[in-house]
Amino acid sequence: MSAEGKKPRYMLVWGGLALLTGIEVATAFVVRKALEGFEIGHEQVTMLIILILLGLAVWKALLVALYFMHLKWESKALRWLAVAPLLPATILVVVVLMEYV
Amino acid sequence: MSTHGAEAVQFEQTSFNVYDKKLGMWVFLASEVMFFTGLIGSYIILRWGASESWPAPGEVLNIGVTAGNTFLLICSSVAMVKAFAAIEEGDQKHLKLWLLATIVMGASFVGVQAYEYTHLIHEGFLPSSGLYGSTFYAMTGFHGFHVTMGVLCMIWVLGKAMRGHYTQENHQGVETIGLYWHFVDLVWIILFTIVYLI
C-alpha cells in the first residue's frame, strides 16, 4: 500500500457498512410488510426488492474491497487482477439466469 | 509502493508492483471468487428450477440473529484493518489488541453460526430437508469453514506478533491475512443477501 494521500477513514466505512446492513434488513421486511396490502403487481415489486437488495450488497462489497482491501490505492495491474474473476463469474451467473428469465 | 532498504533485499517485488505473498493471496482470492460463484450458480438453478415452493425470508431462518452476526463480521473486518493500520505506524500494542479483537469476533461469528445450526437441526431443518436445506447448509457451511480457517491463521499471526515478528517496515503477513479476512467478510455480505433476505 502506498503512503501517498490521506489515511483511509476506516471508521467511516464501518459506519457506512453498518447503516447499509440496517437498510437491507428494513428493505427485506418493512417493504415486504407493506406489500401484503397490495395484490396487484406483487411479482414486479418483489423483483424490485431483489434488485435493491443486490444493489446494496454490491455497494457494501465495493466498500470492503476498495477501502479494507486497499484496492483504491493499489497499482493498476493488481486492480485488474482483482476484477478479472468477475468476468467469468458474471458470465456464469447471467447464463444460468437466462434459463429462468 | 515505497521500497524500504531491508525489505528490498529480503523480498522480491513481482511485476504487479507488490510483494509475492500479496500477489499469491490475490490470485488465490480470484479462484475463491469462482468457487463461491459456482455455489451461487448452483443455488440459482436449484431455487428457480425447484418444483417445491421456497420459504419466504424469515420463515425458517432467524434473520435478527444473523443480521447481528453479519454486523459482528463487519466489526471484525474493521478490527483487522485497524491492526494493519497500527503496525503501519509501528504500534505493536495496538497490532496485538486489534488482532485479538478480530479473532474473538471471528470465533464468535462461528459460535453464533453453530448455535443457529443447532437450533435449526433441533427444529428438524436438516441438510436433507429438501433443496432449501441442502443449499442453505452448503453455502453457509462452506463460508463458515472459511471463517474458521481465517481464525486459525489469525491465531498463528497473533502468535508471531507476540514474538515481535512484525515491524513498521515488514508486516506482510498481517496485510496478507487481512486480505483473506476481508474477502471472507465480502462473501458473507453477498451470501447474507442471497440466502437470508431474498
Short note summarizing the structure:
The complex is a heterodimer of chains A (101) and B (198). Chain A has 101 residues and is mostly helical. Helices cover 73% and strands 0% of the residues of chain A.
Structure description:
The complex is a heterodimer of chains A (101) and B (198). Chain A is mostly helical and 101 residues long. Chain A has 4 helices and no strands. In chain A, helix 1 packs antiparallel against helix 2. Chain A is flat, with a radius of gyration of 18 Å. Chain B is mostly helical. Chain B has one domain: Up-down Bundle (Four Helix Bundle (Hemerythrin (Met), subunit A)). At the A-B interface, helix 1, helix 2, helix 3 and helix 4 of A face helix 2, helix 3 and helix 6 of B.
Write the layout of secondary structure elements.
The complex is a heterodimer of chains A (101) and B (198).
Chain A: H1 10-35, H2 42-68, H3 76-83, H4 86-98
Chain B: H1 5-10, H2 20-48, H3 63-88, H4 92-122, H5 130-162, H6 172-197
Helix pairs in contact in B: 2-5, 2-6, 3-4, 3-6, 4-5, 5-6
**H/E element string of chain B?**
HHHHHH
What is the CATH C level class of chain B, in words?
A: Mainly Alpha
Mean pLDDT across the residues of chain B is 92
Radius of gyration of chain A: 18 Å
CATH architecture descriptor text of chain B: Up-down Bundle
Q: Report the structural category of chain B.
A: mainly alpha
Helix content of chain B: over 70%
Largest sheet of chain A: none
CATH topology of chain B: Four Helix Bundle (Hemerythrin (Met), subunit A)
Per DSSP E runs of 2 or more residues, the count of β-strands of chain B stands at: 0
Major sheet of chain B, described briefly? none
Cα gyration radius of chain B (Å):
19 Å
SS field, number of helical segments of chain A:
4
